[in-house]
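Supplementary notes (optional reading)

For those who missed the lab, this is the record we used. Protein: Transport permease protein. Length: 291 residues.
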Amino acid sequence: MSTTASTTGLNRLDQTGATARRLPGTLRLGLVRGGVELLQFVRERDSMIFGFAYPIVMLAIFATVFGDDDPIVANGVTVSFAQYFLPGMVATGIMLSTYQTLAMSIAVERDDGTLKRLRATPLPATSYFLGKVFLSLVTVLVQTALLLAVAALLFDVPLPDDAGHWATFAWVFVLGTATGAVCGVAYSSVPRSGRSASAVVVTPILVLQFTSGVFFPVGQLPGWMLDLSSLFPLKWIAQGMRSVFLPDSFAAAEPSGAWQHGATAAVLATWLLVALVVGTRTFRWRRHDDG
């Protein structure tokens, strides 16, 4: 009898200990992992500074080169080149801080064995990805805030003063950020090594910046180029941001003659879902040569 009681007591202690040692939830672990990712990002000061500075520097260069001598006109309404250029830079910042950053960092972590080691820990895969998305969201928010502040304070770019435009900004920003992040995770399996990640990841987004109406007014781009760019998220994020920061009359200057908010949401949501499915099926924790 005493032996049975002792065994029962030990079982209860084991169960209590197991409960006490139970891991936190997936979301909480994801936030903790996000904190680790953010700390590592801040420690790489050169990467952080250049990442935040890129859209700001590009805005400053184009606004200074063209200035007020080359304003953009649509339906008799004139805006400075800085104002017209701002939406494209916001869109570029979103894609660079999500798609490019995640695709490159995950490819490097796979190559140096970080992913393999993390896979051997109790950390759920979902928590790892949540940490990456958390890092992307924080960096995009900071980068966009800095870009808007510089545009408004240094280049006198007027910002929206009504809730409607800011609501449009919010949903384009959130959907664009989510799409870019998921696309980055899915595309991270394409580079065969960490050393090739830079060329493989940067080249497509660099080309799309020139063909999606980021660096040039969309009316100056060939129709076939815009049609090709319409297949990718950057063009639609930039168009959505133009609807926020440009006068409503500029909708007529778009190839379709409208802002196409419905099409923007549909294309971004489609890319989000497709990238989620592709990423789930193709993501690898090991290098190509590691089985």
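If you only remember one thing from this example: Residues 81-111 form the longest helix (31 residues).
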